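Notebook B, p. 112. Complex prediction, attempt 2.
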Amino acid sequence: MTHHDIETPENLARRKHGQEVLSRIDGHAGADVLAALADTNPALAHHVAAYSFGDIYDRPGLDPRSRQLVTLGVLIALGGCEPQLKVHVNAALNVGLTPAEIREAILHTTVYAGFPRALNATFAAEEVLKNHTPPKAP
Amino acid sequence: MTHHDIETPENLARRKHGQEVLSRIDGHAGADVLAALADTNPALAHHVAAYSFGDIYDRPGLDPRSRQLVTLGVLIALGGCEPQLKVHVNAALNVGLTPAEIREAILHTTVYAGFPRALNATFAAEEVLKNHTPPKAP
Amino acid sequence: MTHHDIETPENLARRKHGQEVLSRIDGHAGADVLAALADTNPALAHHVAAYSFGDIYDRPGLDPRSRQLVTLGVLIALGGCEPQLKVHVNAALNVGLTPAEIREAILHTTVYAGFPRALNATFAAEEVLKNHTPPKAP
Amino acid sequence: MTHHDIETPENLARRKHGQEVLSRIDGHAGADVLAALADTNPALAHHVAAYSFGDIYDRPGLDPRSRQLVTLGVLIALGGCEPQLKVHVNAALNVGLTPAEIREAILHTTVYAGFPRALNATFAAEEVLKNHTPPKAP
Amino acid sequence: MTHHDIETPENLARRKHGQEVLSRIDGHAGADVLAALADTNPALAHHVAAYSFGDIYDRPGLDPRSRQLVTLGVLIALGGCEPQLKVHVNAALNVGLTPAEIREAILHTTVYAGFPRALNATFAAEEVLKNHTPPKAP
Amino acid sequence: MTHHDIETPENLARRKHGQEVLSRIDGHAGADVLAALADTNPALAHHVAAYSFGDIYDRPGLDPRSRQLVTLGVLIALGGCEPQLKVHVNAALNVGLTPAEIREAILHTTVYAGFPRALNATFAAEEVLKNHTPPKAP
């Protein structure tokens, strides 16, 4: 049996499930990344969906808001991940973090990763936050 | 005026406040780090307390649980921060994260920072988690 | 359906397959890592086996020798991954790299990651290389 | 008392002092960064000024030339900090480092951080160095 | 004697040799990098050629294909090295790695360096791979 | 001609020169590192001496004190380079930096690389600084 083959029925189901989790959290931003990979590296696209979202993100042990806080911390610290940071700032808004909380989280990273990483994260994040339509008041 | 002088009344008050925040969150683990610095680099000890805890951690814009999730993400991604990770796993327990949530947060970082960083974080975190007495049921 | 549940028959099969790939490549060193995780973070152990080895390492698109060369490059550049580096130096020997080639690969990284990372990698690698019994001449 | 409130008289004074140190060292380049943050993350702008420049940079224990050399080393090694590197190449010129010394410092980092970081730093630094009017001879 | 002087006959010979190795492996892409440095940091250009290619790359202890696999691993893990990654994807093609193997190598790094680094590497690599004319069949 | 052969008369002379520079700056600490490499990776030992010290460190374009400040910045930012940091704290003392200046340089890095890197650097540096006999007063 070929577990690594991304076109088995089992892996098609894993990928489809992962894509659903991805859409729920990232909306079209995540789907756009997968589409950009589809022609040239479909296996990478598969594993972004199947592993990152289907296997890990969907696990019940940590709520989506908490997962996004960890994700923001990792992406800011790594540096050079501005495209991924923008996707995940959008996801953070989708799972309930407010723009003020996201900015506070970035400020918080100055302590552990220094100001340059936090400044780069700010400029990337604001590209998303300025375009974000806040939810209408009821 | 010498804003940088850590012994002005203003800076003594900032440091004292920071130490209180630090004790509230990290218990003795944080205080031990400051004590280790007191003789050789007191200015570094001052700024750990005054800036990291008094100025940043104490801000109301993000709850302590959320701050710890960001902190865990940053420390795991940086790598080589096992001593700080242990202090902050302890802090994470103090502010209400469960051992299961901390382990899930570490698993979550495999997606963004890879397995080696998550494995190193696991081995460091478990040194704290195995010693942690869970709060007694009422 | 719960794709994230590591105890479904599907995920048990994925894990078993990954463990076989891991044993083939890393021998007991990899199995020891999984055993160390089994009690405290079984999901992390599952994904090391199922994703890293079953899904990725076993793919036919790149031979094991080449995969180990990429792995050595990543681990040396990341820094702070000495435990993983030792496991993968052992794996490199298992898939046919010679001690001389491993040392040359480390020297090669000085160009791209600088001397400190290469020196740390050398000291970690030599702990494995000195214990390695070379294959007997026929 | 609210040490973390950036609008207390004490923190206004700290910020004003930090802005003066920043202007002295970075000229308008640093002020531009703060202005870019003012609307969206004023607390981050405050701490760049109050902590980085007022509390740390202004300390007498190390001369500004030496501080810039350390800063260049850190920013080159981190990678992905090209915007900050440009600000600090300009600052390095302001505190008396020559273009030749800055280029030599970048070359020096090849030993410890490898050639790619040094090449990226070179291309960022030259954008500043080519625009720099050398001080007039007396 | 001034070993550090890049214009001694000895160092001219080292540089010329390194440039030949560089041309053999990287074609015009590597030469373009050296040309970009020639006016502003000729010593850095010298050492890229003399050390990286003449002293290290040309060593017989590891074949060029293997060196490129290590190089790809290091550059992907470092992050922020997209310009260098493009040069070395081109070099990888020159020394016999196929586009499929390069894509597989990038996928392989997800295990050790996480998905964001692999995604950034993919987008940089595809800029080279899409322009690559495959060798004609005989 | 084999420029990469570390046993040519030319490379023997380069290595000898580099070892002299290394001894002048690092004293026995640097020589100990080379000795540790001599049996297993003599080419790495050669290039530490010939390239890092003979080719780069000995260049007249930047004074040794300035080189050590850049080196400290890079090593602190990289993280996981505690052994190299200790060697270079010793070298920093040898070229005229005072313990107070070294501690201040470490504090300075909190701004750019965050507190955990500075704390790790402090604990490594103090192992050297506590053993350092200050020069006798005349």
